[in-house]
Design a protein that fits this description.
alpha+beta, four-stranded antiparallel sheet, two-stranded antiparallel sheet, 8 strands
């Protein structure tokens, strides 16, 4: 959430404020130490309750963000939002004070996240996957501590977990503040380590803003997606897997879909392997590894019309009218200079996601920084985008994750005219209509 907020604020706006960011990071670390030491009466209680209300707010923002009819299918994000909401309410003793329940829920959260982190690292083997496994193992250790009454008691589990989270986030913010101080005035915030796996942004380290004609500001950037279920004849439906991982057609072949970024006539990003060999489902897990052995020669398709002529039209489109064309073209020039394709590490969806980040840097609102940053932090659509980004970084980007990510980001940088009461009513009508259709089918 914080990283995406910094990205949409932009390095240009943040660089002069790096001491303030550093101060916030160090203050979070100091508060964490204070909670662990319990040096002042009441500090632990106040800090944990404040953290609990932050979780409640995060959960509410996540639920509100999922009320868009187009995002109802993303059950992963909704489950995360509801989980944060429930955990936050229990921390602030609503509806009752139960330290054991709080500890068990914290332990469950650490257990799930640690297991997913270890599984993702073991299967995908991305760069520094050993470090990710150690991080996941540490989370499993915290889960054991939270679920037992030793050496940290149930009464101390929540303050202990809050202190650790504050320390980690504070250290991250302080490190990013130092990195902001050192980048060139026209550099990209994506060059800072920590905005995703290193090999996703390794070619933007020396990126500079290009000098472009003014008419580019009137152009449109479109994210186009061929969904997994739209590009294969599916015999058996598996809703979540089909949407966010890959679909298996009736012949047992893998269909993962495809994603492109279309900035016609200036740029077209469609990363594809030179030899599009069909992937048998039996060896799918081995092919998911992001190791060099799975690198294959790749190329970038010339245009959307070419793909329509040789395949068929995409079945989903997201248009952007507000973006940084100069930074997009600069990033693409670096990224496309390496045509290597990897099904997990450098696939079509990764190419689109990192290009989208580059194009939208600094596009999160206008006005003074003290007003822009809170507006972003309290934007439910940004919460959804951040949750999707976190899931992609734990595993990898897929066409449908990119699609949902692009939709959420578009509502952040180009807010819809529909206000929240109208969105709530539209979501309620959409839910009732979907229930009616399900009832009709049964």
């Amino acid at each position: 959430m914080i990283r995406l907020t910094l990205l949409l604020t932009g390095a240009a706006a943040l660089q002069r404020r790096w001491p303030a960011l550093m101060g916030c990071g160090l203050a979070a670390c100091a508060l964490a130490l204070l909670i662990l030491a319990d040096l002042v009466d009441g500090v632990t209680v106040v800090a944990t309750h404040v953290f609990g209300w932050i979780l409640v707010l995060s959960g509410v923002l996540g639920v509100l963000g999922m009320l868009s009819p187009q995002l109802r299918a993303n059950r992963m994000v909704l489950a995360r939002a509801v989980g944060l909401l429930v955990l936050g309410l229990l921390i602030v003793d609503i509806p009752w004070n139960n330290n054991i329940a709080n500890s068990l829920l914290f332990g469950l959260a650490f257990l799930i996240d640690g297991t997913l982190r270890i599984a993702g690292a073991w299967i995908l083997r991305f760069q520094r996957w050993q470090a990710a496994i150690l991080s996941g193992a540490a989370e499993l250790g915290l889960a054991v501590l939270a679920m037992t009454n030793w050496p940290v008691t149930y009464q101390q589990t929540v303050p202990f977990s809050v202190a650790l989270l504050l320390a980690l986030n504070g250290a991250t913010l302080a490190r990013m503040a130092l990195a902001l101080r050192g980048i060139p005035p026209d550099g990209s915030i994506l060059s800072i380590r920590g905005f995703g796996p290193a090999d996703w942004y390794e070619r933007i380290d020396h990126a500079r803003v290009a000098e472009l004609e003014d008419e580019l500001a009137e152009a449109t950037m479109v994210v186009r997606v061929w969904t997994p279920t739209g590009s294969a004849e599916i015999a058996t439906r598996r809703p979540v897997l089909d949407r966010y991982v890959a679909a298996v057609d009736k012949n047992g072949k893998i269909s993962s879909g495809h994603a492109v970024l279309d900035f016609t006539p200036h740029l077209y990003i469609s990363h594809y392997p030179v030899e599009d060999n069909e992937r048998p489902a039996a060896s799918f897990l081995r092919q998911l590894r992001a190791t060099r052995e799975n690198d294959v020669p790749g190329h970038f398709q010339p245009s959307y019309q070419h793909e329509v002529d040789t395949w068929f039209p995409a079945d989903a489109h997201i248009s952007f009218h507000r973006f940084n064309a100069a930074r997009l073209l600069t990033h693409a020039a670096h990224y496309q200079s390496d045509t290597t394709y990897n099904f997990t590490r450098r696939n079509c969806s990764v190419a689109v996601a990192v290009a989208l980040d580059a194009a939208l840097e600094g596009m999160g609102g206008s006005g003074p920084l003290w007003r822009r940053v809170p507006a972003l932090l309290f934007n439910p659509d940004l919460w959804v985008a951040a949750a999707l980004r976190h899931r992609a970084e734990t595993l990898t980007w897929t066409p449908m994750l990119v699609y949902d990510y692009a939709r959420a980001l578009r509502r952040v940088v180009e807010p819809p005219p529909m206000h929240w009461p109208d969105r709530l009513r539209a979501a309620w009508r959409g839910w009732r209509e979907s229930r009616r259709r399900e009832g009709t089918r049964t």
